[in-house]
Amino acid sequence: LKTLLQIQDLHTYFYLRKGISKVVNGLQLSVREGELLGVVGESGSGKTVTAMSVVNRVRMPGKVVKGKVIYQGQDLLKLSEEELRKYRGKEIGLIAANARGNLNPLVKVGNQIANVYLAHNKVNKKEAWEKAVEMLRMVGMNDALRRAEAYPHEMSGGMAQRVMIALALVNSPNLLIADDATNGLDVTVQSQIMDLILDIVNKQGASGILITHDLGVVAQCCSEIAIMYCGQIVEKGPVTAFFDEPKHPYSRNLLNSLPERRITQERIELKGSLSSPLSLPTGCVYQTRCPYVMDVCRKVEPSMLHVDDNYNVKCHLYQEKTENRGSANEKLA
Ligand code: SF4
């Protein structure tokens, strides 16, 4: 499969009064065509800022300070705002967390969708409006015509989320990024929204990044998983291999923290806290919680190692390829 998106050594910092908060800190990640990748991490691990960095929508006091986001050969971070608009909403659709906060409160939702469609297609306003109504129907809204005339504050959280999905999908993007798309919704609506996203991704043959703190969603929906910790990806591989044998000590801790390894609908809650992005330690970011910490972990940041077919881990217990894998697993047992 061809690589569609490649994020290389991404650093996004927030310049605060109390110091520099390194929210995304050397992140590496790639998504292949047709792949549905789940990015999992605790609150505060940098998931949302990563999504915003990919579409270059980080605003002051935040700033992407280093790295590349290569989409189909083009580094998106090098594009002007105008050039980037051709990608956003057309090639790349973003379903942001907090739908209501991301919709324009003063514009009817039908017009918001129609405007995104108009910006990228040679159609008139009437055709764009009809497309908006069609999209609202597609995302499962009853009485779509009446809903299109509504303002965001007249909608429930679930409905506003559906509007966000319609907005993200109206131009049939190649890559859909869903950032905690079901957060704050009740369980029934959550599963309806997830089914909807999956259905649309599958029908359109698109690639997707599902950003979540729910391992169950990833186990059910995704082909690949990436584990995020303190602004870095620490493990990435196929979902089945990950749940059979997670490799990074943090991933093992995550799975072991779930009762009887029951993953459905469980959220991440680990003992101890993440290192503050204001004062990350030298070396491995997981050293403060890791039971296997060694001297080298406090001095040298581990590289992202290719340890198996399509499988990467960022930890000193491993070595490139499969050499020494046995000994790493013994240490982790
Ligand atoms: Fe633990 Fe060291 Fe691996 Fe970090 S590099 S996860 S501290 S063993």
UniProtKB/TrEMBL annotation:
Q: Which reaction does it catalyse?
A: Ni(2+)(out) + ATP + H2O = Ni(2+)(in) + ADP + phosphate + H(+)
- Domain of life, per UniProt, equals Bacteria
Q: Which GO terms describe its biological process?
A: peptide transport
How would you describe this protein's topology in the membrane? Peripheral membrane protein
Record key words, sorted: ATP-binding, Cell membrane, Ion transport, Membrane, Nickel, Nickel transport, Nucleotide-binding, Translocase, Transport
What cellular-component terms does GO give this entry? Answer: plasma membrane
> Which protein, by its recorded name, is this?
Nickel import system ATP-binding protein NikD
What is the species of this protein?
A: Peribacillus cavernae
